[in-house]
Design goal:
The complex is a heterodimer of chains A (about 350) and B (about 325). By secondary structure, chain A is of the alpha/beta class. Chain A is about 40% helix and about 25% strand. Chain A has three domains: about 220 residues, Rossmann fold, CATH 3.40.50; about 60 residues, 2-Layer Sandwich (Alpha-Beta Plaits); about 40 residues, no CATH class. Chain A is elongated. The two termini of chain A are about 35 Å apart. Chain B has about 325 residues and is mostly helical. Chain B has one domain. Helices cover about 75% and strands about 0% of the residues of chain B. Chain B has 14 helices and no strands. Classes of the chains: A alpha/beta (about 350), B mainly alpha (about 325). Chains A and B meet through helix 2, strand 6 and helix 3 of A and helix 1, helix 2 and helix 7 of B.
Chain lengths: ~350, ~325
């Protein structure tokens, strides 16, 4: 890895009894898109606020481009653009005026503000509404203006808090393209915190899974998937014309934990401790079942997330939080899954 | 990779404050609220001037000394004087300009965006307070000039040098007085999450200090130094002094006292004057410097109230979590 631009060491923040961020260590390389994933209340926003020097850590350090985020917040904030989760603008100013004001706060001369605002409005596709009052903007428009606003200072690092929240699918697709472009074309480092996995996984170079203030897994998505498999969690999803027969046969196979029918017609989910694809095809042929679809799950973020999350939930309940109601982690995981599926 | 921006890295420390100040000022001046309060004060000023002119020129006046100044403090049977109106309605202007300074910024989600810019956090509060104080200065100056100009046109009186000085001192005093209420409103805008709560809190304090403080003061004074019975005679001075001291907690009272002294050169003392002190005194009005000396403590107290209020808001704001 190149010399890291974001360097977090042993970062800890406590709110009363609650440990919001627990000895977080993280390094992000220049030009990387890093996804900080976790449920609500995992400490993502606290972490981003500490990176901006807006919240003081109880211990540990965070540095961006070699500057301490707590001690030199002004220098850090010159290099870092922050898009908060529900970005707000002055409702009585137009979109363009809002951008101009941000430019002025960054000490840009008026001509430069004007030039950048124009170019950025074009880039985020907001030129058509630039001279309307920001109070009339929809959520998606605000988000796009928010990105233009962040780019006004031409930051090297961009931190986005839940950028996809409340935007329609088309808007999310555009947003993701834009974010990817910011990284690839402009070479900016981007840190996205989110609980919406599908959208984020498409554009992240690496992800970190953040639960209850701890980074429980960190790495490229593919690697996280393989890591899970080496721990004996294989997930297959298949579709057949005779699901009942095949499920019965699979449940008899050695190494299969569960094989259950999904809600959809002919869908089967199989969880096993080893790779059973070879046996599965032979078994299907023996029983005369046609395999219509076969897909290895676990390589995608949702599965990874769920598995890590369940693991983390288990160990947490036992060891660190005896006072916590048991199974809270699992309940959260279930809630999370529901949310993911709905999205 | 695009070229790094030279402007951002060489940004001077003050630019954030200046940009914020300009925005706040233009926000105030463009707001309907400002227009409304200004219109109200303008109407009230006109009315009080009319009342003063009728009273002073309608009947017989015992003295023509400082007649121009007396326009400021004279009301009629149906309308208060300009100074009284300013004492009572001035706070409303201060509250109007400050009660939603920080909490609206927070609720519309712009506070965190501001805080993420390379400016000091205190610059946000400083800019808001300075912009409010500037607007107050503008309002007071505009009303003062309007009053003087209209008075000169209506009565044909031309203020002398000392009168001009006294009017300027009075206007400065008024601006500081209204700033006290601005500082109070800014405190509540930091403390209260909702602008409405902050406004209500400010208004209740304003009404209490302006209308009910005198009742409380006399109540306390009478409880501590009863005026009934034999000891009542002995307690008279103590009673009065305690009542005065309690009254002076209220900036409304402080301002009224100071404004009267500045605008009325014949006021020679604020407080108790014993017969022995009064005997042998030459019956003439005080020179401007002496009047100023008399209200100097009032001015200092009000200025320090502004600073204390601002400091409280500042400390609270610096310790607050920025997130919504």
């Amino acid at each position: 890895m190149e010399e890291a631009i974001v360097r977090i060491q042993g970062l800890t923040k406590r709110y009363g009894q609650v440990l919001a961020v627990d000895h977080l260590d993280l390094e992000i390389a220049p030009g990387e898109v890093f996804g900080l994933l976790g449920p609500n209340g995992a400490g993502k926003t606290t972490t981003t606020l500490m990176l901006l020097g807006l919240t003081e850590p109880d211990s540990g350090t965070a540095a961006i481009d070699g500057r301490d985020c707590t001690r030199q917040p002004l220098l850090v904030k010159r290099e870092v653009g922050y898009l908060p989760d529900s970005v707000g603008f002055y409702p009585d100013l137009t979109g363009r005026e809002n951008l101009r004001f941000s430019g002025a706060l960054n000490g840009l001369p008026p001509e430069e503000c004007e030039r950048r605002a124009e170019a950025l409005l074009e880039r985020v596709g907001m030129t058509y509404a630039a001279d309307r009052k920001a109070g009339t903007y929809s959520r998606g428009m605000k988000q796009r203006l928010g990105i233009a606003d962040v780019l006004m200072k031409d930051p090297r690092v961009i931190i986005m808090d839940e950028p996809t929240l409340g935007i329609d699918p088309e808007g999310i697709r555009e947003l993701m393209t834009l974010i990817r472009e910011l990284s690839v074309r402009d070479g900016r480092t981007i840190l996205i915190s989110s609980h919406q996995l599908y959208q984020v996984q498409q554009i992240c170079d690496r992800v970190g899974i953040f639960v209850r203030g701890r980074l429980i897994a960190c790495g490229p998505i593919g690697q996280l998937g393989r890591q899970l498999q080496s721990e004996g969690r294989y997930l297959l999803e298949l579709r057949t014309d005779r699901p009942g027969t095949l499920a019965e046969a699979l449940n008899g196979l050695e190494g299969v934990r569960t094989a259950e029918q999904g809600a959809e017609e002919g869908l089967l989910r199989v969880e096993s401790v080893r790779d059973i694809r070879r046996e599965l095809t032979m078994l299907a042929a023996e029983r005369g079942c046609a395999l219509l679809e076969l897909r290895q799950r676990g390589g995608d973020l949702e599965e990874i997330y769920r598995n890590y999350f369940e693991k983390a939930g288990d160990s947490h309940d036992d060891a660190d939080h005896p006072a916590d109601p048991a199974g809270k982690g699992r309940a959260l995981a279930a809630a999370l899954r529901r949310r993911i599926f709905r999205a | 990779m695009p070229r790094r921006c030279a402007g951002a890295s060489s940004a001077r420390e003050g630019t954030g404050l200046a940009a914020l100040y300009r925005k706040e000022l233009s926000d105030h001046l463009n707001s309907k609220r400002f227009l409304l309060i200004f219109a109200l004060l303008l109407v009230v000023t006109t009315a009080s001037l009319g009342g003063a002119v009728t009273t002073l020129f309608g009947g017989s006046t015992e003295s023509t000394e400082f007649l121009f100044l007396r326009l400021f403090t004279t009301g009629s049977s149906s309308i208060y004087s300009f100074a009284t109106f300013l004492a009572f309605l001035g706070p409303l202007a201060g509250i109007t300009l400050g009660f939603d300074a920080v909490n609206t910024e927070r609720s519309q989600g712009t506070l965190i965006r501001l805080a993420a810019q390379p400016i000091y956090r205190d610059a946000i509060l400083n800019a808001k307070f300075l912009a409010g104080a500037t607007v107050i200065g503008l309002i007071v100056a505009a009303l003062g000039l309007y009053f003087c100009g209209a008075a000169m046109l209506l009565t044909g009186l031309v203020p002398g040098g000392e009168e001009i000085l006294r009017v300027i001192a009075f206007l400065l005093l008024s601006a500081v007085y209204i700033c006290v209420w601005l500082a109070l409103a800014v405190i509540f805008s930091v403390v209260c999450r909702h602008a409405a709560t902050a406004a209500l809190a400010c208004i209740s304090i304003w009404l209490f200090l302006s209308l009910f403080m005198s009742l409380v003061a006399s109540g306390i004074a009478n409880a501590v130094y009863p005026l009934s019975g034999m000891e009542g005679i002995l307690n008279m001075v103590d009673n009065y002094e305690l009542e005065l001291a309690v009254n002076r907690i209220s900036p409304y009272y402080l301002y009224s006292e100071a404004a009267t002294t500045i605008l009325n050169p014949s006021v020679r003392s604020i407080g108790v004057v014993t017969m022995s002190a009064a005997s042998g005194a030459v019956a003439s009005s005080l020179p401007f410097a002496q009047s100023l000396l008399l209200v100097w403590p009032h001015l200092v107290v009000m200025a320090s109230l502004v600073l204390a209020g601002f400091a409280a808001a500042y400390i609270r704001f610096m310790r607050q979590e920025i997130r919504a």
